[in-house]
Amino acid sequence: MNRILATHEDDMVAVIEPGVTQQMMKDHLKDRPLTIGYSLAPPHTSVFANALLGGLTNRSLKYGDQSDWIAGLEVVRHDGTLARIGSWALSDIPFGLVPFPGLTGLFVGWQGTTGIVTKIAFQLWPKHPLNRRLFILSYSARGTYRAMSRLCRTEICDDIGGLSWPSAKMMMGVAHPDPSPQPGEPIFFLYVDLTAETKAEMRAKEDILARVLDEVRAQGDRFEDPLDIHTLVRAQPQLSGFADFPTDLKFLTGHGGGGLSWIGTYGPMSRMIPAVEEGMALMTERGFPPLIVSRPMRGGHFIVFRLIVTFDKKNEEEVARVRSLNEELLELATRHGFIMYKTPIWAWRRLEERIDPGMRRLMRDVKAVMDPAGIFNPGKLGLP
Ligand SMILES: Cc1cc2nc3c(=O)[nH]c(=O)nc-3n(C[C@H](O)[C@H](O)[C@H](O)COP(=O)(O)OP(=O)(O)OC[C@H]3O[C@@H](n4cnc5c(N)ncnc54)[C@H](O)[C@@H]3O)c2cc1C
Q: What would the mean pLDDT of 356-372 be, rounded to a whole number?
């Protein structure tokens, strides 16, 4: 089931099956004026699963997590019957979810525990002729997230990412950077995507970006001036993985040891600075380079806070250290109000008692109606 079944260009929506990958969508849209957002996952990963799980992409700042782009679903229910959800229940064009009841909520974020989704109507977004990706070196977590918050409010960026220093070193070929940064080195880099219809529009956005950086500098935070990704790649070809999406970040997926793990959370922008500072300190203390990837979502209403480790899968002692680090990082993030997304069972068990009991009861009641025989993914989300 890996077909792109329809593309309604004028309505900016495509109907896809579960096996459609990021690369397939990119190839399909190559000569069309439309795009999707791409996650940092490798090109062969499913767009569909990421949408059902509320994953994040490089257009999530503008348009929200990927589940926000679902304009209709076709689902197989526990009794084998099919249902079409959203405007698609009546119109041949799945233009949106309204005005019918929001029944996609019965399938989105449930990790396959309520039914099997067989088709998604997925919203597409306009491509613009002018695109710039700029990198800005920053010397503190505080300055990075102050600038990020301020930039969100200007609404000039299609995407903003904040990545800590180990990501740059690892991309440049240092597989195991020292857990502490070298004195004087930048602590973060911000990357900013700007798009425009005209040169004048792009210049205006660049001017606003420069003004925001000056404002934050005036508060005592240090930044370098923005560098275009193409200039950077000419000087450091190893950075080409950041030039075009989807991408396979080999420093994560092909580092030799085979182990890659992270605590990926969504949470409030207002808590980001203390959460990042504590998270980085804890990783360093435990002997891991503090690799953080973050991205504001949906206009800056919330943010992704992701703490990543690479390790040698065959080294049992290292695997145990990663497991214990992840437990500590989960606690740290939860304490700051961040919630692990795509929550694995081990993390769900640790969080369960703290989740509102009314919500847990409601989830069990919905599950009982949607899956009375318990055939869909039993055990996930603490459900029978
Ligand atoms: C290097 C790297 C970077 C990544 N970066 C990002 C990133 O930037 N953003 C991001 O969001 N993710 C990222 N990911 C995660 C990635 O996007 C995964 O593709 C995503 O988590 C879904 O794949 P999976 O293998 O977990 O899905 P699966 O395990 O196949 O599915 C996940 C869950 O969805 C349910 N499900 C799957 N298909 C259906 C269906 N048809 N109907 C009902 N339920 C279904 C399953 O039951 C399961 O519980 C990254 C991964 C890697 C390795």
A: 98
For the chain, give the number of residues.
Answer: 384
> Considering its fold, how many domains does the chain have in total?
2
Per the structure block, which two tokens stand in for 53?
């799980």
Are 162 and 80 found together in one domain? Answer: no
Indicate if 149 and 292 belong to the same structural domain: yes
Of 39, 159, 262, 263, which is best to mutate to test ligand 1, by the most ligand atoms within 8 angstroms of its C-beta? 39
Q: Which of 186, 192, 185 is nearest to 226 (CA)?
A: 192
SS3 assignment, position 110: coil
Is 252 close to ligand 1, i.e. is its CB under 6 Å away?
yes
Determine the structural domain holding residue 188 and report its residue range: 130-340
Rounded to an integer, the average pLDDT of 94-98 is 96
Question: Under the phi-then-psi rule, with left for phi > 0, alpha for psi from -120 to 50, and beta for the rest, what region is 194?
Answer: beta
- CATH code at 83? 3.30.465.10
* CA–CA separation, 93 and 88 (whole Å): 6
365 CB neighbour count, 10 Å cutoff: 10
* CA-based nearest residue to 253, from 47, 41, 56: 41
Report how far ligand 1's centroid is from the alpha carbon of 111 (Å).
9
CA 65 – ligand 1 centroid, Å: 13
Residue nearest to atom 29 of ligand 1 (CA): 49
Cβ of 164 closer than 6 Å to ligand 1, yes or no, is no
Query: Would the pLDDT of 58 be above 90?
Result: yes
Check pocket membership of 18 for ligand 1, CB cut-off 6 A.
yes
Domain holding 222: CATH number?
A: 3.40.462.10
Kindly state if the Cβ of 296 falls inside 6 Å of ligand 1.
Answer: no
* 357 Cα to the center of ligand 1, angstroms: 27
Query: How far from the centroid of its chain's Cα atoms is residue 148's Cα?
Result: 16
- Pick the last residue of a domain from 76, 107, 126: 126
Task: For residue range 193-244, list pLDDT tens digits in order.
Answer: 999 999 999 999 999 999 999 999 999 999 999 999 999 999 989 889 889 9
Q: Does the structure show a pLDDT above 90 at 256?
A: no
The response to whether residue 97 sits with its C-beta less than 6 Å from ligand 1 reads no
The verdict on the CB of residue 50 being under 6 Å from ligand 1 is yes
pLDDT at 25: 98
Q: Give 145-181 pLDDT, tens digit per residue.
A: 999 999 999 999 999 999 999 999 998 889 889 999 8
358 assigned to some structural domain: no
Is the shortest distance between the CB of 39 and ligand 1 below 6 Å? yes
